[in-house]
């Protein structure tokens, strides 16, 4: 097939893509790849295997799609999460039967939990084999040596971690419908979906004309008597409040409603106090006059907590009511004072409505809001704890200050699970994007996610840098993905926190136990060079080293030497609450 794709299909001009294909039929593999291209995606992550090789061959028939080979499938899944969260598009992961797909599964589960859209394409065993009793590689053996294996076992497993599944069969029309259905579901639900492509069906011929049919991936708001009644009820609650608050949460970004939020913020500017949640950070300009702070219940700033909890109406938009967004369940919001708009429901002062959601009502609500009828919030004095000064020792608080000072609005900050994540509730992002996996919270996420974020930035031509913070324990899990940062010539800044092991676990239990130790002889500053990159990393041992640090161009790694038991104040507070 001739190279086909140069025009950008994001505008929905699907016909332009297929006009340049001079054949009435294409393979199902090309069909899948062209559908991916039509969605504005330019990079595909994964690891090859003999069950997906014939699919991957077709990548070279489609101009404009690049293969990003990862070191293993778990890393590839984390990279996909970083990609999806950075550019707010679906990511694509290709893996092989059994060994590959199961390896990716923990990362896919994280994406499912955190509503990160993914197409996971798995090359599976050939159709002819599926009903045979041959003991094939990558196939789980049956409970008895004489029993046949189940070729669909992994598909059944994946069903628990995805919003849609489709097995490609030999009927061409059905195959195209299956692909389109799975892509649609992924976009509507914002969660992973699976396509299982048997390795003998990759050349199945399907009509090129199917590509003319729009995919209809955009969510269509349900404007009906139910949603209009919900909007009316919410407006009445807002108008009768005497001290309202706006709390911005996670699903605003997942549901791509930042521009609607922007309209609301402009309307309420200078009238209503604005807060965000931990996972909602990065959606509001925290330097705006009426932004008060990040609400973390009893953790974090107590003045901010008092201000939110005293409000007689909290309008929580994009609500994701999980541990990390509730100060580890220390938030004291009274359900009767809260209107929550979430991805699959709306809650109005304690009354849950499940057949309407924020995508149905938020735009309408903002449109109809008569700001003259909204009371002014009470103003609160918020004390900000002083940032540390002096020279020794270097602590996580210093790193927070350093990152705050270095972030610019186009940057992406990625923080792994570990002690430092608790410092980020009070970090000022200056308009930068915040990418993390704090709910699923698998350590080792950050370096592969950095690869995904860098590729997302590169594909969209977005300016700014990716800045990543990761503990030594987390890094030891997935660090080989630095090789891909070198290979794909991307330029993130990596801060590696060397504190001799699993500090966050040490402060929870077993401070001196061997189970919280790690191999400590790693030569961190050699890591980039060891994977083929030219630059040596640099050790940062003191506060003055850090404050004088100037970050150059290209991939950078800084090893921060931190005391073994240093943790951010918020984590100390959290642990003290647990003990009391
Ligand atoms: C995949 C996975 N395994 C285990 C854990 C449990 N866990 C949470 S934090 C942590 C230690 C993190 O240590 P490090 O990255 O060095 O951060 P530190 O707190 O020392 O800064 C562990 C083992 C986890 N969250 N994810
Ligand atoms: Mg550590």
TrEMBL record:
Q: Which GO terms describe its biological process?
A: aromatic amino acid family catabolic process to alcohol via Ehrlich pathway
Domain Thiamine pyrophosphate enzyme central, which positions?
A: 231-357
Q: Name one GO molecular function term.
A: pyruvate decarboxylase activity
Q: Which residue intervals define the domain Thiamine pyrophosphate enzyme N-terminal TPP-binding in the entry?
A: 27-131
Q: Does the keyword Methyltransferase apply?
A: no
* Cofactor(s) needed for function: Mg(2+); thiamine diphosphate
Co-factor binding comment: Binds 1 Mg(2+) per subunit.
User: What are the GO cellular component annotations?
Assistant: cytosol; nucleus
Similarity remark: Belongs to the TPP enzyme family.
Q: What is this protein called?
A: Pyruvate decarboxylase
């Amino acid at each position: 097939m001739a190279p086909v794709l140069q025009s950008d299909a994001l505008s929905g001009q699907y016909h332009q893509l297929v006009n340049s294909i001079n054949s009435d039929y294409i393979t199902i593999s090309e069909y899948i790849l062209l559908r991916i291209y039509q969605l504005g995606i330019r990079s595909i992550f994964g690891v090859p295997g003999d069950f997906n090789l014939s699919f991957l061959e077709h990548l070279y028939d489609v101009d404009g799609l690049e293969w990003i080979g990862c070191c293993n499938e778990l890393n590839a899944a984390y990279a996909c999460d970083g990609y999806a969260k950075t550019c707010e598009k679906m990511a694509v992961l290709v893996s092989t039967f059994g060994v590959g797909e199961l390896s990716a599964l923990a990362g896919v589960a994280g994406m499912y939990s955190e509503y990160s859209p993914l197409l996971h394409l798995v090359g599976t065993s050939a159709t002819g084999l599926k009903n045979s009793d041959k003991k094939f590689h990558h196939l789980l053996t049956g409970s008895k040596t004489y029993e046949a294996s189940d070729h669909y076992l992994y598909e059944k497993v994946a069903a628990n971690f995805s919003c849609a599944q489709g097995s490609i069969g030999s009927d061409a029309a059905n195959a195209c419908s299956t692909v389109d259905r799975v892509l649609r579901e992924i976009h509507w639900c914002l969660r992973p979906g699976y396509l299982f492509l048997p390795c003998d069906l990759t050349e199945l011929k399907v009509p090129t004309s199917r590509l003319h049919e729009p995919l209809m991936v955009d969510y269509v708001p349900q404007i009906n008597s139910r949603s209009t009644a919900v909007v009316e009820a919410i407006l009445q609650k807002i108008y009768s409040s005497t001290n309202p608050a706006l709390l911005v949460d996670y699903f605003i970004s997942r549901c791509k409603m930042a521009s609607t939020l922007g309209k609301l913020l402009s309307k309420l500017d200078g009238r209503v106090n604005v807060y965000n949640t931990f996972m909602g950070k990065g959606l509001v300009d925290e330097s705006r006059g009426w932004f008060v702070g990040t609400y973390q219940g009893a953790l974090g700033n107590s003045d901010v907590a008092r201000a939110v909890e005293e409000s007689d109406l909290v309008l929580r938009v994009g609500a994701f009511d999980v541990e990390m967004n509730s100060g580890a369940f220390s938030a004291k919001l009274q359900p009767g004072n809260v209107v929550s708009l979430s991805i699959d429901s709306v809650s109005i002062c304690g009354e849950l409505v499940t057949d309407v959601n924020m995508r149905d009502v938020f735009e309408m609500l903002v449109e109809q809001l008569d700001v003259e009828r909204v009371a002014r919030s009470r103003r609160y004095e918020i004390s900000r704890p002083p940032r540390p000064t002096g020279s020794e020792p270097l602590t996580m608080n210093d790193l927070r200050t350093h990152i705050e000072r270095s972030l610019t609005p186009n940057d992406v900050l990625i923080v792994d699970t570990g002690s430092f994540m608790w410092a980020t509730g009070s970090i000022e992002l200056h308009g930068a994007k915040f990418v993390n996996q704090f709910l699923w919270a698998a350590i080792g996420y950050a370096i592969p996610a950095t690869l995904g974020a860098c590729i997302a930035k590169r594909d969209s031509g977005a300016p700014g840098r990716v800045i990543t913070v990761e503990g030594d324990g987390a890094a030891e899990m997935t660090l080989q993905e630095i090789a891909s940062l070198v290979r794909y010539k991307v330029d993130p800044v990596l801060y590696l926190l060397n504190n001799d092991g699993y500090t966050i676990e040490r402060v929870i239990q077993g401070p001196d136990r061997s189970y919280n130790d790690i191999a400590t002889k790693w030569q961190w500053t050699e890591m980039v060079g060891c994977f083929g990159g030219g630059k040596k990393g640099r050790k940062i041992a003191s506060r003055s080293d850090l404050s004088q640090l100037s970050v150059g161009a290209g991939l950078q790694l800084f090893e921060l030497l931190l005391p073994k038991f240093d943790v951010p104040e918020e984590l100390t507070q959290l642990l003290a609450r647990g003990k009391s």
